[in-house]
Amino acid sequence: MLYSRPYAHRLRFKDIKALAETISAPPRNWTPEILWRAYETLDKSKVRGSGTRVLTDVVSLVRFAIGQEGELVPYPEQVNQRFTAWMARQEVNGRAFTAEQRGWLEDIRDHVASSLRIEPDDFEYSPFAQRGGIGRVYQVFGPELPQLLEELNEALAA
Hints:
Number of strands: 0
Radius of gyration: 17 Å
Shape: globular
Number of helices: 7
Number of domains: 2
């Protein structure tokens, strides 16, 4: 069910939170940490990291459990790898970013790693608000910002 939805209707943070609450309900009382350790016990060679950092690690657990991923890797680590690949593609395609833009992009990457995606409303919260929020990010990226956010959502949360 989680992956049968069209991209535009893919998981949101509230969906992951609801899934985590469901698996932690009696009678099983499972938590992402317990499931991560169970997979480590079954085959440590296929498990990287602890899986205890963020709720979005539930995505990694689901993908591994259904066989979509052959290795259990913390979600933020996967997002970071995808971001690095995305940045490399941008460079190859001749798209350069200023130091300020790179700082924003790194904050967006970190937000996606912990929240599954980035939306314009998210710029009202930390760490974006401290950098000037939605007004400043629009100044930095201009009218291409909405397309850039959608591109990052697709590339990082793949």
